[in-house]
Amino acid sequence: MLELDAGAGCWSWMLELELVLVLVNPELRGRMRRYTRGEFLSLSAILAGAASLAKLPFNRAGAQRPTTEPLPQRGAGIEADFIVTNARVLTMDATQPRAEAFAVKDGRFLAIGTTADIRNVATQRTKVIDAGNMCVLPGFIDAHCHPSGVSELFGVVVTSLKTKAELVEALRKKAATTPPGFWVEGELFDDTKLTDAAPLDRHDLDRASTAHPIAVNHRGGHTSWYNSKALELAGITRSTPDPENGRFFRDSSGDLTGRVAELARGVFSRAGQRERFTPEQQRDRSRQGMRHISGLLTATGLTTVHDAGANGDRIRAYEDARANGELKHRAYMMIRGPYEQLRTAGVYTGFGDEWIRVGGVKYAADGSASERTMRMSTPYVGTNDYGILTMTQQEIHERVEDAHRNRWQVGIHANGDVTIDMVLQAYERVLKQWPHPDRRHRIEHCSLVNPDLLRRIKAAGVIPTPFWTYVYYHGEKWSQYGDEKLRWMFAHRSFLDTGIIVPGASDYGPGPFEPLMALQSMVTRRDYRGREWGPNQKVTLDEALKIATVNGAYASYEEKTKGSISAGKYADFVMLEKDPHDVDPGSIKDIRVMMTVVGGTTAHTAT
Ligand SMILES: [Zn+2]
Hints:
30% helix; six-stranded mixed β-sheet; 23 strands; binds zinc ion
């Protein structure tokens, strides 16, 4: 039906019009699969020409072009900004899964094909990136993350320290440059990663300083360790009772260990002295934090990150960083805090643009997977502990109804099977009473499932966002759940088998955000020690790549503009030193990320 006349140097107005129709109706692009690669390339290139035509008044784009005006040559006006050649491109586009090269113009993919094909859209001004047979994929999408960057930039990050001695040394160094009485804090700590036999306690931290209050905060966000000075300044002694929603941990003789959980940590925020910042300084720190974290995220190949709890400060940080040319990744923000103000102002899901977009509203209904507090129908191994709920069913119903009826996507943190059931009840209720053809409410984490929950998630069109680096990274914690539960946790395989469009999520800080670690974790279901957890949930590498790209785009309603290397989509891609298909699945995480490009702009290059 579509006949391309390669020799004529022009195209008929009929063809032109049809191409414009294809352009404005992406569904029609499905026709492309009927063409050979060469034809497809030509079509892609012409589409770009049609894009500029589409911006013209119809009488210029249509049949009434004056015949005296020179007709455009094939290729005129479609000069690529740059092309990538000699690559192993895994497009994640079913119509053309593999390619060697592609062209980019104005931040979008212009054409995809062989190296020889793509050279045709290059001119002398076109930059050529020879990939040297390296692997190129669409940029990775993390569907649940907490990117702030402030503590990473200004605090003492202790994640990589493996012994108490190293930890103490890092804190001592910081204390040496901090006035006495002022806080020294270690960030992103993981208690189960220390190699010492005895757990960290306040006496260890006293070796770093007795003149400064010290806190070491767990990366999961629910527990902290304090030194003796901090306990003294907060007035906590061995006779202090535990508050209702928290705990001061004690040893067998009743002495404080310095470990403190949940709301018991509140008293420390009022003790000691902290550096104070003016609102302007605070705003600047947030912007700098965003610049910093954006650099870290894109260095791992992430190009879109769903922020699972953006407040006013965070929203402003995105905007400030962008205005300064420092925002390298795209953000889909789940709003926490100013939801009601935004809703009242008339904002709803989808507001914003391709860089900073308002996504859903975010709530949290139970505890944590990594800190072993999520609410389950059966207890933690060897205990009577079923975990904790943080919302009632009534609260969930009310929040969901309000958001749903105001055209907001909802994302509720629900790890345990009990909590997932409660959230599903609320989604099922509103979808029945106020149907929506494509609402895509989300269950954040959705860690522990069963066949009934899977069936209901599918039926309600709900999107789960299970952890994707946890099996690998948090392995030493899973014995507290046991092998049987792990068969149904982080259940990417079960979601796929049920026909659910499941993305992947780090929940950084609690989990690492490196997407290559995530691919390895989902494919092998082995932790960093090699122990296998829930092998029935393994996915293939190709499925893992889909989870990391196409499915991530779907979770934010952006599958038409992101997630694959397809003509017309944003030019978000990552170049890897090796094709993950070619390495041992147990070493996927070690592949080097050579280059990350977002919207045609280089965000990261390997040094
Ligand atoms: Zn989270």
